[in-house]
Task: inverse folding
């Protein structure tokens, strides 16, 4: 392979544009795709040169292809021309199969979304595209409108028939994506500073509407993925106790071994819970608990996918988890899911999306335990730091510290065991690094390392690398190398591409100073 070819393939693997996914799936280079488009354009009666440079610009510079090129590409992919009018570029590209659109926020809608996630999420390659910002805004509007209708109705109406019983009574309720939600109205520059005054308020009300119902849950589960033995099992209190304990155990394995070690186990457990929900012969309380377990697993799956660089899969896990948490009536878990989406957007280099998701988490956190509100504030701080909003980031940190102090007198959810003073110090230090304040970040990152539980191997590795970066930026190169060696030693014990990327960046920085 020539140097140019190798560079092109490396660039293609790094791109998360939907067009990059389409090319990788078909095995096309930039030049291959240019020829395919030119050939189909000639069939449509439009002469066109096969220039690889224009494909590069579409994928890397955000250039929108001219109408003739889009029509030719749609013809090559078998996409009806009307899709180009209904969904502007690049939304019509066949790259978001795991995110069904227009589902009602009901138990039935949650089942359909979970099935789509499990059918499409397992084979996600690194680089599967992230949904565009309008899709995230739509999800935020849906969430706000669904929350205005109440968070307990879907799971609570299951009755003796469990979750399956809820589908008959709740299937017609849905929400309108354009129903005047706070997020849609406020846009990207909403008044985050005012949010600190609303931490204890409930989710604000909005108007509700309707979206089309999609395939029923019964149809969604007519596939070989559902284990018949699981579907026939008896679901009682001890079974759900074991499932809940299993998710907590997986979280602690992730702390020690990283997302790569637990990703496939999370998927397997999600399939098992889906089979139990499908049966539907359980008590109302058990149905709600099963939905909560599914949401918890989806949140962990989103984090594991983020940690392993599968950012498209991570986003779909989080968005599916939000539906499940809504159906279970679990707002604290929904806050964690919004926080996961916010951190995911920071890592993916989409800071405006990070702010939008973090603000949705703040709204959802109203009335939740202080530890949950502290988590929401911490994620908002990271999001504001990513867009360079220094003052807003610091205000959010102050709120997180205040809520974490309150949390000492009121325990939070068991799954939030990891969010403590050490974690907040580490997140605050990273925010300050993102803002360019290495001198302020350095003591906080080193304080986090001194306080953090030694069993959190993956996080200690990551924070050692960040502390090394802070030392390098403040002129302590020998200290940076010492911390870098410690991070490299810890990295051998956990599988996390995110850590590898961080260590690579640190090495480049230190090598440049030799």
Result:
């Amino acid at each position: 392979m020539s140097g140019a070819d190798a560079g092109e393939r490396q660039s293609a693997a790094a791109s998360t544009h939907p067009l990059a996914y389409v090319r990788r799936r078909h095995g096309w280079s930039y030049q291959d795709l240019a020829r395919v488009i030119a050939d189909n354009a000639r069939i449509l009666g439009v002469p066109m040169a096969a220039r690889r440079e224009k494909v590069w610009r579409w994928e890397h510079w955000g250039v929108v292809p001219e109408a003739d090129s889009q029509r030719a590409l749609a013809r090559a992919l078998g996409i009806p021309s009307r899709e180009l009018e209904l969904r502007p570029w690049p939304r019509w590209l066949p790259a978001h199969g795991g995110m069904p659109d227009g589902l009602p926020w009901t138990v039935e809608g949650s089942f359909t979304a979970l099935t789509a996630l499990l059918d499409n999420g397992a084979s996600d390659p690194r680089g599967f595209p992230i949904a565009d910002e309008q899709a995230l805004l739509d999800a935020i509007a849906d969430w706000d409108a669904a929350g205005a209708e109440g968070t307990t109705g879907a799971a609570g109406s299951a009755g003796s028939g469990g979750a399956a019983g809820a589908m008959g009574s709740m299937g017609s309720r849905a929400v309108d994506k354009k129903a005047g939600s706070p997020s849609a109205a406020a846009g990207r520059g909403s008044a985050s500073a005012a949010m600190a005054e609303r931490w204890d308020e409930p989710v604000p009300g909005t108007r509700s509407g309707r979206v089309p119902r999609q395939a029923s849950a019964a149809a969604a589960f007519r596939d070989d993925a559902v284990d018949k033995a699981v579907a026939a099992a008896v679901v009682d209190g001890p079974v759900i106790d074991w499932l809940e304990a299993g998710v907590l155990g997986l979280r602690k394995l992730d702390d020690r071994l990283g997302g790569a070690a637990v990703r496939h186990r999370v998927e397997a457990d999600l399939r098992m819970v889906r089979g139990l929900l499908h049966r539907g012969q359980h008590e109302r309380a058990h149905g709600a608990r099963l939905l909560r377990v599914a949401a918890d697993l989806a949140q962990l799956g989103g984090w594991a996918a983020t940690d392993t660089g599968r950012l498209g899969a991570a986003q779909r896990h989080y968005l599916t988890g939000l539906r499940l948490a809504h159906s279970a009536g679990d707002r604290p878990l929904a806050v964690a899911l919004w926080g996961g989406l916010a951190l995911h957007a920071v890592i993916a280099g989409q800071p405006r999306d990070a702010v939008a998701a973090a603000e949705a988490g703040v709204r959802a956190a109203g009335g939740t335990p202080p530890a949950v509100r502290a988590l929401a504030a911490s994620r908002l701080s990271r999001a504001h730091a990513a867009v360079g909003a220094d003052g807003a980031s610091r205000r959010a940190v102050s709120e997180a510290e205040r809520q974490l102090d309150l949390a000492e007198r009121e325990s939070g959810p068991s799954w939030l065991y990891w969010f403590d003073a050490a974690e907040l110090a580490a997140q605050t230090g990273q925010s300050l690094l993102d803002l360019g304040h290495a001198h302020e970040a350095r003591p906080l990152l080193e304080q986090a390392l001194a306080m953090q539980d030694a069993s959190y191997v993956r996080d200690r590795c990551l924070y050692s690398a960040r502390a090394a970066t802070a030392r390098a930026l403040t002129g302590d190169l020998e200290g940076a190398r010492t911390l870098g060696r410690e991070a490299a030693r810890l990295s051998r014990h956990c599988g996390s591409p995110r850590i590898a990327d961080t260590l690579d960046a640190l090495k480049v920085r230190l090598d440049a100073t030799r």
